[in-house]
Design goal:
This protein is α+β, with helices and mostly antiparallel strands. It contains twelve helices and nine strands.
Length: 355
């Protein structure tokens, strides 16, 4: 009786094998024979009722059917998968005679355009372009710029610390200290700009947690009389060349630990023309940079004798300058990576933005 059951399942399998035409039917057949209540599974459950002397032959017969099914299943599975792959390849074949899709291109980022314009201007004025590390030490970012640990002015620069000693630099002024130290054995005049990324915990229409600065530094011997008048003249040329002739400048006394005296430099708001609006907080002015005469302590700590050497420093935020030049009302537009926004600047750079 048990052997008859085996032959019945075996014959049924041969019939079913001829009726399989796709992968779904093959999987259904697997459930029919090898599922929890499958025909071959049921044959295995019968072995407990077989006399001991017949169990070996019965088990071999069941395994033979299982092997036949598994071999058939693998063969059909590979066949169906190959057919499916061939259909996909045929369907996805590229017709090289069709016209190609136009690839959208952006343009050079407006901040990069601004950096290049500033570099061209200052190189023409005899300045060197310098760089420095974005991961900076507390020593160079603060201490060598006359901001010792615990100095209240540090609160103005909320910082991204990596360790107690290392942080993402909050200002490119750190390169100022590195340049002075590099020349301390044989002090010499310095005229440099340092464009680059800086980081602070800020985020609104005119601030970003990541932004670019361009530190400027001029150091010369005292007898050459580098003065505040030279600083003002330099910044007037800088603003008019980079932003436009129709903006007014304003110098306000301020405080920076690394300069003395210090100034905030504002320009009239490009959006409202100085009348007052939300962008300029109804003042008619927007600050673009801080500047001043290099503090004697900074010179002294970095190897220059303040009795013999002096000069000025300044540091504009490049995103704000870019906003002025191109009439961008919100700094956050610069970092959305929207190609529709970026591609506008190929056209805008054909003319001076604010004239």
């Amino acid at each position: 009786m048990k052997n008859e059951k085996i032959e019945e399942v075996k014959n049924l399998l041969e019939i079913d094998k001829n009726n399989i035409s796709n992968m779904n039917e093959l999987n259904d057949l697997k459930v029919k024979y090898l599922g929890k209540k499958g025909l071959i599974t049921e044959l295995n459950s019968l072995i407990k009722d077989i006399p001991n002397e017949e169990k070996k032959n019965f088990g071999q017969s069941v395994n033979e059917i299982r092997t036949i099914f598994n071999d058939f299943y693998e063969e059909k599975k590979n066949l169906f998968e190959e057919e499916l792959l061939n259909k996909k390849l045929e369907k996805e074949t590229i017709d090289i005679t069709l016209p190609g899709d136009k690839i959208k291109r952006g343009s050079k980022h407006p901040v990069n355009r601004m950096i290049e314009k500033i570099e061209d201007l200052f190189v023409s004025m005899g300045y060197d372009v310098m760089t420095g590390p974005e991961l900076e030490t507390d020593e160079f970012c603060f201490e060598r710029l006359n901001l010792p640990k615990g100095h209240p002015a540090r609160d103005m620069q909320d910082s991204f610390y990596i360790t107690d000693e290392y942080l993402l630099r909050t200002q490119t002024s750190a390169v100022q200290a590195r340049t002075l130290l590099a020349n301390k054995d044989e002090p010499k005049p310095i005229r440099e700009i340092v464009p680059g990324k800086t980081y602070r915990k800020e985020d609104d229409a005119t601030h970003s947690h990541q932004f670019c600065q361009c530190e400027g530094l001029v150091i010369d011997k005292k007898e050459n009389h580098v003065s505040l008048a030279d600083l003002k003249g330099t910044l007037e040329i800088f603003v008019k060349e980079v932003i436009g002739d129709n903006l007014d400048l304003r110098f306000r006394p301020s405080y920076f630990p690394f300069t003395e005296p210090s100034y905030e430099v504002d320009v009239s708001c490009f959006k409202c023309g100085g009348k007052g609006c939300p962008l300029c907080k109804d003042t008619g002015w927007i600050e673009i940079l801080g500047a001043g005469i290099v503090h004697p302590n900074v010179l002294r700590m970095n190897g220059y004798d303040p009795e013999k050497w002096g000069g000025f420093a300044f540091g504009p935020g490049l995103e704000r300058l870019t906003m002025f030049r191109y009439g961008i009302p919100d700094m956050r537009y610069l970092y959305t990576n929207d190609i529709r926004f970026l591609e506008e600047f190929d056209r805008k750079d054909d003319c001076d933005a604010i004239k």
